[in-house]
Amino acid sequence: MSTNGNKSVNSYAVVITPDLAAEWLDIFAYDGQRKPDPHRVTYYAKEMTAGKWLPGRSIELAAVGSKKFLVDGQQRLWAVIEANQAQSFTVIEHPAHDMDEVAEIYVMIDIGKQRNASDILKPFHEAERTGLTTTHLNTLLAAARVLKAGFRSPTQGLLLSPREMPALMEDWAPHMRTFVETIEPLARDIAQCFRRAPVAAVAMYTLRWSPSKAPEFWRQVSQDDGLPIGDPRKTLRRFFAQHALGSKMVNSHQTLGVHTYCLYQALAWNAWLDGRSLSILKVVDPLADVVLKGTSRSELVHG
Where would I find the H helices in 111-213? Predict the structure, then answer.
């Protein structure tokens, strides 16, 4: 037995037969678990049948009272079944207070294969909690990293920990929902742009801190309901169309960084808020801070 903080973590050796593996996959099934990779299962099974499997590999469970959940090792158990050969494992049991803590344990230890945002969010049931699709949640997370970095491209030191994600979802999800409801249905020429992290970041920020103004701004940027030439919203919409992936008009989407993309949006937002005409977006200083006028939280977001 070992300890983790104030919690006791139990570990013990078990010889797992194919029948026991099938039983554990059934009774310890965890719905937050991603689907097993059949190629990895087959690889493990071949290692087992060739006698190259290292005994003592871990199977990890999270326990809420007497109920246990398989949070790491499902592919190893499937491999035991496929190889039809018993194997010795070290079983580690992590105590948890509730299912939210089970989800935290899962995302922290299931790192055998790189996970995308959907894999990480699944055990927290964020789609059900927030009412957002997986695509929107992925955009939200990417945009949150941009916001955390001060409207700049996130560095390695600003990666989001899986433990941060549920609280972050609760914080920004209402503004992402408002953004989605405001801009849809989207025209094909700019749909891809609205899924970009810097666009969602600026949109969510303005919707949060300027809720009386921002919905009308983003609705017209997305729809262009008869806007006149010189309206900053029309100008920004044209910028989005020009910088959409695959656009034949320009190819600078490959070189525009996150921060520069945010600066272009700030130009249009500030001009519209001031009531100024703006027909061309031109960033003079690509290193300047992103200024978003009219936000109640802060007039200046520092990079």
Answer: 117-121, 126-130, 134-148, 165-183, 188-191, 197-209
Are the CB atoms for 258 and 153 separated by under 8 Å? Answer: yes
User: 194 phi and psi, to 5 degrees?
Assistant: -75, -5
pLDDT value, residue 125: 54
**Cα 254 versus chain centre, distance:** 22
Task: Give the CA distances from residue 151 to residues 33, 36, 68, 257, 303, in Å, rounded to whole numbers and listed in that order.
Answer: 33, 37, 42, 10, 6
Tokens of 156: 């390695």
Structure tokens given for 147: 């916001």
What CATH architecture does domain 2-115 belong to?
Alpha-Beta Complex (3.90)
Yes or no: say if 224 and 233 are a contact pair by the CB < 8 Å rule. Answer: yes
- Joined together, the tokens standing for residue 100 give 């939210």
Closest listed residue to residue 138, CA positions, set 113, 165, 157: 165
What are the residue ranges in the chain where pLDDT is below 50? 1-6, 111-114, 156-157, 247-254, 298-300, 302-303
Residues 207, 201: Cα–Cα separation, whole Å: 10
CA 83 to chain centre: 36
Q: Which residues belong to CATH 3.90.1530 in the chain?
A: 2-115
Please calculate the CA angle 157-160-165 and round it to the nearest 5 degrees.
165
